Amino acid sequence: MHLRTTARRRSGQLAPPWKQSGDRWTVALWLLAGAVAIWGAMSLIGLLLTHIVDRGSVHAADLDVNQWFAHNRTSFWNSTTAIGTGLAETITIIAVTAVVAVILRWRTKRWYEAVILITAVMGELVIFLAVTAIVPQRRPPVSKLDPAPPTSSYPSGHTAAALCLYGCLAILVLWLYGGRPGAKIIAAVLCCIPIVVGISRVYRGMHYPSDVLAGLLLGGLWLWLVASTFLQQRPWGRPAAGQAAGQSANNRRRL
């Protein structure tokens, strides 16, 4: 399969994978099977953490990090981490997803990229809620700077949601505008947001570090599945349409 150009991706000449395969249910079932597999793996890891290693060295290392942050809080970092955790609050995730989905539809003249974004965000939410229904509630025994939600501390839903939302946006930026100079910088900044969110959640006493790592794993696995299903060619390291045309002309002149 030849690599699609950036211009073609923006022009609407892109067939969804279900049209390529001839059966949209194939894609849905593939994503469903992947979601179930991720749910099973994350639930197993969570049960191991809460029932087997919850009193060992792993748990002690987890708690040491939480206690260090709790003992070294400052007003500056309290305010800064409030912004960090706010980047992945439920209302923020919903608002950003909705606004960006509309912008993607307007800019590309199709729903393809918007569907990818919505699938990444909503799929993560479903998997996260399914995992928290299996893994028991546990939060670090330190003072907390935010109200504790009713869901389990494992995995970090804020971190997983941030990775799926901002990570998906980074992929789409590279996919649509990979040939432009600022695309990689924007993508890099977007990729840093989940890390900021994860550290903020640990600092504020809402999660163990292992919860954040689990959130990154959950979000990363689901985002990889969605991106590899809908975007079957890598978006990076590919020239834009104008650059590709110029390179072709230069090659013809050399011949």
Q: Which helices and strands appear, and what pairs or packs with what?
A:
Elements (H helix, E strand, L loop, with lengths): L5 H6 L5 H5 L2 H28 L5 H15 L3 H12 L3 H19 L3 H21 L24 H21 L5 H21 L5 H22 L10 H14 L1
Helix pairs in contact: 3-7, 3-10, 5-9, 6-7, 6-8, 7-8, 7-10, 8-9, 8-10, 9-10
How would you explain this protein's 3D organization?
The structure is a single chain. With 255 residues, the chain is mostly helical. The protein is built from 11 helices and no strands. It has one domain. It has helices at residues 6-11, 17-21, 24-51, 57-71, 75-86, 90-108, 112-132, 157-177, 183-203, 209-230, 241-254. The protein is globular, with a radius of gyration of 21 Å. The relative contact order is 0.16.
What labels describe this entry?
255 residues, mainly alpha, 11 helices, disordered N terminus
Order of helices and strands: HHHHHHHHHHH
Major β-sheet profile:
none
- Structural class given helices, strands, pairing? mainly alpha
Helix content: over 70%
Q: What's the shape?
A: globular
Determine Rg (CA atoms, Å): 21 Å
Cα separation of the termini: 25 Å
Strand content: under 5%
Mean pLDDT: 83
Number of domains: 1
In total, how many beta strands? Answer: 0
> How many helix segments?
11
Low-confidence stretches: 1-7, 234-255
